[in-house]
């Protein structure tokens, strides 16, 4: 089955690269397009077997599964533009969090899925947040599970936790990269270590931390207990974090949810 990707921005490109590098699809199965076609042709240079379609309608005509990787407020107008081309057999996969599957099902006659990716999927790792629409057949569900399972761990969610799940799985890499960068900057500013040395150590540390968790050597709590021995140096650092970070993540979640609610409201007006 051919797979279409409409939108080759950051996440669309990551999705294409992950699907190909994992072997989930072959380049010859992919039909991609973008508002700025040059971006799609740049991807084709790396993966010559890919077909670049002239516009979204050509993508829908040629593919059975369509990944829609455009900005939230661009989705409804695009769905309307493509209305003559959808069939009941198509499977539409939207990667944007503010639009739910019920809204998508109201706009198109085909099967719909929401699959919210993470930058970690580029390394064939992390989670991808999946919600199936009511019209999805067993075959559609299995096909999507197989595809996404090659690039990430599919985690099935409902609308009640969409935002917080996205904050952890999709936004989390940016949040924790920021914290790690601040740690590196402080180390270089406060001590004789260079930024390059601190970056190397921090990178190896975070990769090693991930491996410890992945291989179930420790949980987050037991890992802290192992490193933070009573009366030790690590405990002094933990005490600073406990004091200075109190309420930070609660405020972060408040802000992301406020922004999400604003986008949801704007989108509701489109789908009325």
UniProtKB/TrEMBL annotation:
An MF annotation (GO) of this entry: pyrroline-5-carboxylate reductase activity
Keyword Cytoplasm: yes
Record bears the keyword Cytoplasm: yes
Recorded GO CC terms: cytoplasm
Pathways involved: Amino-acid biosynthesis; L-proline biosynthesis; L-proline from L-glutamate 5-semialdehyde: step 1/1
Domain Pyrroline-5-carboxylate reductase dimerisation: 163-261
Keywords: Amino-acid biosynthesis, Cytoplasm, NADP, Oxidoreductase, Proline biosynthesis
Catalytic activity: L-proline + NADP(+) = (S)-1-pyrroline-5-carboxylate + NADPH + 2 H(+); L-proline + NAD(+) = (S)-1-pyrroline-5-carboxylate + NADH + 2 H(+)
GO biological process, one term: L-proline biosynthetic process
Subcellular location: Cytoplasm
SUPFAM superfamilies: 6-phosphogluconate dehydrogenase C-terminal domain-like, NAD(P)-binding Rossmann-fold domains
EC numbers on record: 1.5.1.2
Domain spans labelled Pyrroline-5-carboxylate reductase catalytic N-terminal: 3-97
InterPro entries with a match to the protein in the record: 6-PGluconate_DH-like_C_sf (IPR008927), NAD(P)-bd_dom_sf (IPR036291), P5C_Rdtase_cat_N (IPR028939), P5CR-like_CS (IPR053790), P5CR_dimer (IPR029036), Pyrroline-COOH_reductase (IPR000304)
Annotated NADP(+) binding sites: 6-11
Top enzyme class: oxidoreductase
Functional description taken from the UniProt entry: Catalyzes the reduction of 1-pyrroline-5-carboxylate (PCA) to L-proline.
Entry's family note: Belongs to the pyrroline-5-carboxylate reductase family.
Protein name: Pyrroline-5-carboxylate reductase
């Amino acid at each position: 089955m051919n797979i279409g990707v409409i939108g080759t921005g950051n996440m669309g490109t990551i999705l294409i690269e992950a699907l190909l590098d994992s072997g989930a699809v072959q380049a010859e199965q992919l039909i991609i397009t973008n508002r700025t076609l040059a971006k799609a042709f740049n991807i084709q240079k790396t993966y010559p077997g890919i077909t670049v379609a002239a516009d979204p309608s050509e993508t829908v005509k040629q593919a059975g599964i369509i990944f829609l990787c455009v900005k939230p407020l661009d989705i409804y107008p695009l769905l309307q533009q493509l209305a003559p081309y959808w069939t009941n057999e198509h499977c539409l996969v939207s990667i944007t969090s503010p639009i739910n599957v019920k809204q998508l099902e109201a706009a198109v006659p085909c099967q719909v899925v929401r699959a919210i990716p993470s930058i970690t999927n580029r390394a064939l790792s992390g989670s991808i947040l999946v919600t199936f629409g009511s019209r999805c057949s067993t075959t559609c569900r299995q096909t999507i599970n197989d595809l996404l399972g090659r690039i990430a761990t599919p985690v099935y969610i409902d609308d009640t936790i969409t935002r917080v799940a996205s904050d952890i799985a999709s936004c989390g890499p940016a949040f924790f990269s920021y914290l790690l960068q601040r740690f590196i900057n402080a180390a270089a500013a406060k001590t004789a270590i260079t930024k390059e040395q601190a970056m190397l150590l921090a990178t190896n540390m975070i990769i090693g931390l991930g491996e410890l968790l992945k291989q179930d050597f420790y949980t987050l709590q037991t890992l802290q207990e192992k490193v933070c021995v009573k009366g030790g140096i690590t405990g002094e650092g933990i005490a600073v974090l406990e004091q200075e970070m109190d309420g930070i993540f609660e405020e972060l979640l408040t802000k992301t949810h406020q922004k999400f609610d604003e986008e949801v409201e704007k989108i509701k007006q489109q789908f009325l």
